[in-house]
Amino acid sequence: MFSFAKKHYFPSNLAENIPLSTPVDKLEFTVFDTETTGFNVARDDRLIELGAVKIENLQVIDDSAYQTYINPNRQIPREITELTGITQEQTDTAPQALKAITKLTSMANNTSVCYVGHYVAFDMQAIQAELKRNNLKWKNPKAIDTLDLIGYIAPSYDMRDLEKYARDFGTRIYQRHSALGDALTTAYLFTELLQLSQDRGLKTWGDLLKIKGSQN
């Protein structure tokens, strides 16, 4: 007879029961990005860096920024080092993934309404895979993608390049293929998109959730 270990839930530390009528400019968000050893994170590829920053009242809180390298417990492919600049030496002495994920969720501090990322489904999958390796499952991790808002504002856009979007919407661009750099770029892009969305009728947390649902 097979015996399966019971998975324990890992808290998302997000605010709960936020009134749907809460104005968008009164919400708090935790924006994050990851770098990995490759794209097959559900199987063999692992996290090697995590970066995050908070948004409050449509303002990026620069001094909240968090960055850490992560030990993937495997070799980093040469092409990934060439792309990201992250070396084996930097990760061999870095914390394990669970410690970095715990720091990310502690940033949310039960006051952020959701996590935010650019093509965030990949980053969420990478984190879920790391938690699964620790016999954990992320509990109710609400996330919104900048692509959802771009689809709302400019449906004809069909590219996913973060830097191109940041340039087109006139927002700051930080170091590419750096988890913190991409998190900061995403955060500034997200605040601009939220402001543009307000002009188009997106006023509340409930409105934002509808946009998320309509773009999935």
UniProtKB/TrEMBL annotation:
The keyword Hydrolase applies. This is DNA polymerase III subunit epsilon. InterPro entries: DnaQ (IPR006054), Ribonucl_H (IPR013520), RNaseH-like_sf (IPR012337), RNaseH_sf (IPR036397). Pfam families: RNase_T. Residues 28-199 form the Exonuclease domain. The keyword Hydrolase applies. It comes from the Bacteria. SMART domains: EXOIII (SM00479). Keywords: Exonuclease, Hydrolase, Nuclease.
